[in-house]
Amino acid sequence: MANFIKLLPDHVANQIAAGEVVQRPASVVKELLENALDAGASSIKVIVKDAGKTLIQVIDDGQGMSETDARLSFERHATSKIKEANDLFALRTKGFRGEALASIAAVAQVELKTRTSDDDLGTCIHIAGSEIKSQEPVAAVKGTSVAVKNLFFNIPARRNFLKSQSVELRHIIDEFHRVALAHPEVVFALYHNEGELFNLPVGNLRQRIVAIFGAKTNEKLVPVQEETEIVTINGFVFKPQFAKKTRGEQFFFVNGRFIKSPYLNHAVANAFDGLLQERSRASYFLYLEVDPQTIDINIHPTKTEIKFEDEHALYALLRAAIKHSLGQFSVAPVLDFDRDATLDTPYDYKNKAPQQPKVEVDRDFNPFERVTPNTGGTPRYEKSSAAGWQELYAGMQPKSSTSGFSSVSYEEEAPNTEALFKGKDSSSEHLESEYGTSTYQLHRKYIVSTIKSGMVIIDQHRAHERVLYEELMMRMTGSDTVSQQLLFPLSLSFSRPEMEHLKAMKGVLEQTGFIFGELHEESVEIIGVPTTLSEAEVPQVIEQLLDDVDQDVPDPQVAHQELVARSLAKSMAVRAGERLEGGQQEHLVNRLFACQDPAWSPGNKKTFVTMSVGDLEKLFN
Ligand code: ADP
Ligand code: MG
Predict the structure, then answer these.
(1) What beta strand segments (E) does 344-453 contain?
(2) How far apart, in whole angstroms, are the C-alpha atoms of residue 530 and residue 513?
(3) What is the pLDDT, as a whole number, of residue 262?
(4) What pLDDT was estimated at residue 185?
(5) I need a labelling partner for 229 at 20 to 30 A (CA). Which of 86, 156, 549, 579 fits?
(6) What secondary structure does DSSP assign to 340-358, as a single string?
(7) In 275-412, where do the E strands start and end?
(8) Torsion sign across C-alpha atoms 496, 563, 251, 296
(9) CA separation for the pair 345, 48 (Å, rounded)
(10) 3-state SS string for 160-229
């Protein structure tokens, strides 16, 4: 019988192995950065084009490679970092598998230039799809430059599978952050399409965090420090009041390597117990040093997972260390509330005055605009908040007839109920009511209303999301943008990548009613907001939006509109737990059923359920 088993040719084996190491452009960035650090670089520059699809180049000033090493570095399992299996248990380097360069060269066109301090001339190697194209001596500075071009050029399926530029760039920036945060003693720069995204000088950890996440970060940091026999803990957590509603900045490093650990994350969350608002998540930058013998980082090919010898002790120590810091720096919010107001300095007042009082105005903010006169709802909104504003600004501004509030334009009146409920599409048909539209709010979460066939139970948040979403989409595609000018421009700070996203979405946001003043490198001025939004809500709404962008964004303009509309609707919609007056309830019901697609929230969740009298009768059987 014939033999069937054959050894795979090297380039095929390399391509298969590459699948593990190189998932996307960001994986290349990570591997090259780690190599540069392992080579002892003190300054590392990353140049990226088209989110890494066209070019990823990493230039370091590390030890470089000899001619022979340069050639060998592309061989699979070629590494200078371990010599025997035992070395695995005392790793101090990032790499050790000797697979990265071989894998990258299997799926891209690579140019390596390198020179050691011992050599006068460097080496330049071109390799594409594992095939050496050329190798020659070149004049080069000490160190190494690896340029990776047209990633996946020979695997079209994988190339086509890459996500949009913004998503791939986001991943690259994430990897860059992880490495840069682990090494504040090294200079890092990141360029994208000629624009400089980051230029991080040498500094201490705090300075590095601030350089990456923006100046506003500094005041948020609480240091954490603990030294025990098992572990040394260093780093920072965000004060609880700066916790993000969605995903915050969460970084663990073990022996200088970024890791993910749901278990340790839990320990942090636990330390914050009771200090965070519902749904908020702690942000942290925590650095653990442990004996390399006590960890096994080799359980995952991309090495972000880790096994600790004594997980439970680590959990307890970490939790205690954070609790201790939070206590020591008195950042429990309770203390803030109890603070004697007379101790506040005038400076404090001066800084906070324009923003702080508005929070109270917003408590009365009625998302349902004008209440129709015959519904019996109290028009609390106009009365109290207008008065509030005048009081707040009395004496601060010359009285003018074009104050923020008089320029607020309201949307059209509530749609005529009868007409609506006679709508011919099937979803409205069965809502035709013979009882009028009496409504009832259940547990501050649902609105119950009678309909011809029985009753309808509406999720107030989702319903409002749907209403706002359709309004926003309409406004973006139409020409009638309604804005409310702010009395004082609002200045918000963001990190550079966040600013990039904001710039990309500026046009779409303007269609919803935002008016932007100047856009700086790390801050933006907002001079007008959509009428449906109050000023105090703006920071959170934009933060939420940036966070949503962070998740998967499908490509072009249309999608941007959709994303912005969804995100704004989500942030602006009335929440569960908010009490709605009778008139507001009815107004919401009417507006929901005036929507094109009333049955589903923008996130495709049910907005209401119905129950027929027949269903009820069955229940009573
Ligand atoms: P590993 O990092 O796991 O050893 P790599 O494929 O990433 O495997 O690199 C192979 C070898 O090439 C490394 O062990 C190192 O000796 C050398 N090398 C790679 N990048 C650099 C660099 N930027 N500077 C100096 N040497 C490098
Ligand atoms: Mg490596």
Answers:
(1) 439-442, 446-451
(2) 4
(3) 83
(4) 96
(5) 86
(6) -GGGS-HHHHHHHTTTTTH
(7) 284-289, 295-296, 307-308
(8) negative
(9) 48
(10) HHCCCHHHHHHHHHHHHHHHHHHCCCCEEEEEECCEEEEEECCCCHHHHHHHHHCHHHHHHEEEEEEECC
Question: Counting runs of H as helices and runs of E as strands, what totals does the chain give?
Answer: 22, 22
pLDDT, residue 373, reads 39
Q: Determine whether the shortest distance from the Cβ of 100 to ligand 1 is under 6 A.
A: yes
Distance separating alpha carbons of residues 200 and 522, to the nearest angstrom: 15
pLDDT band with cut points at 50, 70 and 90 for residue 390? very low
Contact in structure between 317 and 228 (CB atoms under 8 Å) = yes
- Could you tell me what percent of the chain has a pLDDT over 90? 36
Say if residues 115 and 121 touch (Cβ distance below 8 Å). Answer: yes
Reply yes or no on whether the pLDDT at 560 is more than 80.
no
CA distance 166 to 155: 22
The upper half-sphere exposure of residue 518, i.e. CA atoms within 13 Å in the direction of its Cβ, equals: 5
Tokens coding 619: 């229940």
b vs e for 142-154, b when ≥16 Cβ sit within 10 Å of the residue's Cβ? Answer: bbbbbbbbebbeb
Query: Which residue has its alpha carbon closest to ligand 1 atom 8?
Result: 98
- C-alpha 433/C-alpha 610 separation (Å) is 13
Q: Which tokens in the block code for residue 58?
A: 């990493």
pLDDT, position 577: 87
Residue 34 CA to ligand 2 centre (angstroms): 6
**Are the C-beta atoms of residues 25 and 159 closer than 8 Å to each other?**
no
Indicate the SS3 state at residue 455: strand
| Ion ligand 2: residues, CB < 5 A | 35, 95, 100
Q: Is the pLDDT of residue 25 over 70?
A: yes
CA of 93 to the centre of ligand 2 (A): 9
> Among the ranges 149-153, 348-352, 559-563, which has the highest mean pLDDT value?
149-153
Q: Could you tell me if 107 and 155 are in contact, meaning their C-beta atoms sit under 8 angstroms apart?
A: yes
* pLDDT score, position 246: 61
